[in-house]
Amino acid sequence: MKQYVVDAFTDRVFAGNPAAVCVMDRWLPDGTMRNIAVENNLSESAFVVPESGGYHLRWFTPGGEIDLCGHATLASAFVLMNFVDRGRESVIFDTLSGKLTVERRGELYEMDFPAYDLKPVAVTARMTEAMGAEPKEAYRARDLLCVFDDEGTVRNMTPDMERVAALDGLLLHATARGRDTDCVSRSFAPKLGVSEDPVCGSGHCHIVPYWSRTLRKEDIVAYQASKRGGTLYCRMAGDRVRLAGKAALFSTGEIRIGE
Questions:
Q1: pTM here?
Q2: What positions carry a catalytic annotation?
Q3: Based on the domain organization, do 168 and 248 belong to the same domain?
Q4: pLDDT tens figures, 77-123
Q5: Residues 43 and 95 placed together within one structural domain of the fold
Q6: pLDDT tens sequence across 10-60
Q7: N or C: the chain end with fewer CB closer than 10 Å?
Q8: Which CATH number belongs to the domain containing residue 225 in this structure?
Q9: Nearby residues of 24 by Cβ (< 8 Å), 6 or more positions away
Q10: Domain tally for the chain?
């Protein structure tokens, strides 16, 4: 079985967020796909099967299946458009989060994702202890979003992963207003077996609605300030978020199962 590894939200390898993409004729057992994700040891491995003129897409972290993943969706579209179904300019994925469309726009791949409805929650001592800094605001949807006054606080924080795992929410996102972009952020997912997600697309379905409302603008340029780093070009569209980014192919390989 052929597997591609793509660095998403970047135009060069060794940056952005790497995702493994397996394009298959039929589904493997769930346990096998999870074992492949564990073996890859990336934040996500994507599995794609063609169906009804489109594709069915599932995402697995080393900790199990997840309901939404941005960078692995971008990577999957990049693989399909450039190596599997060349000439295609858009693709519709059937996923656990409904139909997701990806369109090629020049060098960018633009995804149409659902925006999370953020609910304000109290800032707690547990949050401060987990991140080593006190957020000024906090919000919950699928994930926990913590907002800080200073970009440097987000860039320099060294969270305690055991304490992060004890917080509410599937992932933890820390964000602040950016100096060179509209916002910066970092994303942590110890509950999924991933300490820090280098560039989290689904996280920006939390981050972008907050900054769009706060900055009173629809178009948001977001930078994920992990060691690898990555840029997302985002736009709010009602209850949807458009997330666009570039991608670079790192490798292709063969997975051998049962040989």
A1: 0.90
A2: 44
A3: no
A4: 999 999 998 889 999 999 999 999 999 999 999 999 999 999 999 99
A5: yes
A6: 999 999 999 999 999 999 999 999 999 999 999 999 999 999 878 999 999
A7: C
A8: 3.10.310.10
A9: 1, 47, 48, 49
A10: 2
